[in-house]
Fold this protein.
Amino acid sequence: MLIKVRDLKKEYQTGEVVAKVLQGLSFDIEKGEFIAIMGPSGSGKSTLMHILGFLDRPTSGLYEFEGQNINEFDDDELAYIRNKKIGFVFQSFNLLNRTNVLDNVKLPLVYSKISNKEKRAKEAIEAVGLTHRITHTPGQLSGGEQQRVAIARALVNDPAIIFADEPTGNLDSRAGLQIIKILQQLNNEGRTIILVTHEIYTAEHAKRKICLKDGQMVGCEVVIEQRIAEKEEGLLK
């Protein structure tokens, strides 16, 4: 078992107002799965990803990663695990604009003690098909190519799991499909992929879905019906 979650809750308090963002989630994720966390804006999916990726802590409930309760670790220990075990891909790419592809991909290795940093980075770049762009800066790349660089950067530490938060959100449909195919290939090679999205067509590429609405797990048909209704309403407007 890679991830075990039981009755997970997350609340934020502002003065006397308590916002219940996650309300008692329970699920398991096995090593090697391709999971889509799906839901509309405000459903809690990004908050859940931040907790699963050690960027935040739950208010209550159990979260075990590789059999270890994360509540037993301090922030430094969680940061170490995050750097060694987790890779992130974000909608906005988060690349350094004045830094070339190779050096962007090497960034997670800065504090690593491994001696073959450049070799590891070049292998990750090759895995996403961008060896011919290795000396280019982000401004010289298309949006799809920038997201592929972000995936290579997520790969370079050989993580146990890759979180992709709306990875196709800033891309056209063709470039978005290329990104999804790369994630599928990485999953076929044995990597665990957790894809966070509000789009039905993107979520359909995953092998299993966890669907959220108002901070609770619901049947995916509820979320899909809501998304279809939102799109139809947008067309009517």
In short: The beta strands are 3-14, 17-29, 34-38, 60-65, 68-69, 86-90, 161-165, 192-197, 208-213, 216-217. The two ends are 46 Å apart (CA to CA).
